């Protein structure tokens, strides 16, 4: 049986992979690690954990994801998102394991009206995006047999995310202003987990950078409006500009990504974001999470 090591097992994507794992129990042996068991910034620890689990595939669901805090915690962001990823790629190479790593649409500056292709020029405008881009480079330099999935606007029933924050705010506020001039592709992390398993299960040996998200693009304001509709909330939502909602880190205005490559190479068809959002809200209603 092939072995899969999931790093970042306590994170949002990590939880989605834990949920999906039983479906594959007769094909793959999964091990999930949190940062207390495996800190990816510690090369020796990575080496030891690989020796123990001897994975055939490694899914890196770990990251430093605090986009605003990264502006001041620059060293931490780079240690995890860049050097840590470089460590994983090197140790994967030494152990003949295939690394599936997750990156972000924030590697782009968002100054275009077109959907970004995988080989388009990157130009991150914040520390988080810059550290994630460095991680992509180190991963491919240290081990070209790496699959990198850039995703965007991730949410699910697990951990903290935009959908769960909105649902909470809808309970405690009468009205809310939501940014209406940033465009992106919301992505249910459960769909990303499925795409990762589809890639592993395909048995294909095609590597490099891929974009994966739900489609098509929307704004945070329209996203929030759908959350309102699907949850049955009565809250009043108002579209505001980025300037009216200043944050420590700048966000790309339009970081929408083309999804053709993953469809062509891996036959993975992205789902409409509204359908995936509805699925998530139904789960949250059922579990009261
Ligand atoms: N969230 C988004 O909107 C978004 C958008 C685009 C791309 N992405 C990317 O998608 C991936 C998954 O994101 P997510 O939302 O699932 O992240 P998340 O919920 O913040 O989880 C990240 C996990 O990384 C682990 N971690 C942090 N530092 C670590 C270290 N030094 N060593 C080992 N593990 C460490 C943490 O583990 P412990 O809990 O055990 O400490 C945490 O559970 C990330 O690569 C992220 O950059 C996310």
Which helices and strands occur, and which strands form pairs?
Blueprint: E1 2-7, H1 12-20, E2 28-33, H2 43-53, E3 57-60, H3 74-94, E4 98-104, H4 127-142, E5 146-151, E6 154-155, H5 162-172, E7 175-179, E8 183-184, E9 187-188, H6 189-202, E10 208-211, E11 218-219, H7 220-231, E12 236-240, H8 260-266, H9 273-287
Parallel strand pairs: 1-2, 1-3, 3-4, 4-5, 5-10, 6-9, 7-12
Antiparallel strand pairs: 8-11
Helix pairs in contact: 1-6, 2-3, 3-4, 5-7, 7-9
This protein binds NADP nicotinamide-adenine-dinucleotide phosphate.
Description:
Residues 3-284 form the RmlD-like substrate binding domain. With 289 residues, the chain is an alpha/beta fold. It has one domain: Rossmann fold, CATH 3.40.50.720. Helices cover 40% and strands 18% of the residues. Helix 1 packs across helix 6 (189-202), helix 5 crosses helix 7 and helix 7 crosses helix 9 (273-287). The two termini are 35 Å apart. The model has no long low-confidence stretch (mean pLDDT 97). Bound molecules: NADP nicotinamide-adenine-dinucleotide phosphate. NADP nicotinamide-adenine-dinucleotide phosphate binds next to helix 1, helix 3 and strand 4.
